[in-house]
Amino acid sequence: MATRKTRAASFSIASNSTLIAMKTVVGFVTGSVSILAEAIHSTLDLIAAVIAFFGVKASDKPADIDHPYGHGKWENVSGTVEAVLIFVAAIWIIYEAVNRLIGGSAPEMLEWGVVIMGISVVANTLVSRYLKKIAHETDSVALEADASHLTTDVITSAGVLVGLVLVKITGWVILDPIVALLVALLIIKAAWDILNKSFGALVDARLPKEEVEAITSLINEHTSKLVEFHNLRTRKAGSYRYVDLHLVMPKTLSVEKSHAICDHLEQDLKDKLKVDYVTIHVEPCTEENCPECQMSCKKRHSELPDTVNMP
Fold it and tell me: Which label site among 15, 24, 300, 308 has the fewest CB atoms less than 10 Å from its CB?
C-alpha cells in the first residue's frame, strides 16, 4: 500500500511541475493576472504534492519506541500545512487582482493562455481522478487533500479559460482580474475543507458518525456473550482507525472465556469495519441478581459432568 501511495504522490509532483512552468511563462508573456493566479495555484499544488509525498512515506513507518502508536498523524500534519499554504496563495491572488482592477492594464496574446488553460484542465482532471482512486483504496488523507487541490485547479483553470475567451471576444479586460478573484474564493473554500478534515485527527476527533454507528452495531451483535459495553471511544491517525471500549462480562465467567470473547470482537472489528487498533477493558458485572450473570452461571453448571470424582 505504501508503494502505491508514494507512486501516486510522485506522479502528482511531476504533473504539477510541468504545468507550473507552462503557466508561469505564458502568464508573464500575456500579462494576464488570472493566468498568473493559476500559476501560483499550481505552485501550491506542487508544494502540496511534495508534502503529501513525504507525509505518506512518514505515516507508513512502523511503530517504534518513541512513537508506540505509529506515525499515522504525519498525513494529517501534511494536510493541515497544505491548507495553510493555500490560504496564503489565495490572499496573494486577491491582492494582485485588486491591483489589476485599479490599474486596468490589459493582457495580450490571449491565444497562448487559452491553450495552456485547456491543457491544464485535461491534465489535472486525469491526475486528480487517479489520486482520488488511490486515496480511496488506501484511505490516505494526504492523497485525498492533494486530489482536492487538483480538482479545485480543474475548476479554476476552466474558469480562467472561459474568462480569457470572453476577454478576447468582448474586449472587456476587467473580466481577467474578476476571474482571478473568483479563483481565489474557490481556493479558500478548498483550503477550509482540507483544514477541517486534516486538523480534526490532530486533536483526536472521533470517527465520522456513520462509522461510530457501524462499530456500535457490530458490538451489539455480541451482546449475547456479555452484559453491556460503555466508554466507546474512536479516533483516527492518517489512514489508521483506533477504537477502545469497556466490556462488562458476567462475574462468573472465567478469564479465559472473557479473553476469547474480546479476541473474537476485536477480530470482527478489524475484518468487517477495517479498524486497525482495538483496546478492550474488561469489567465484572456488579449488579445484584443480574439475569446475564445467572444465565452464565447456569450454563457453566450445565456443562459440568453428572458425576464428579472426589479425591
Answer: 308
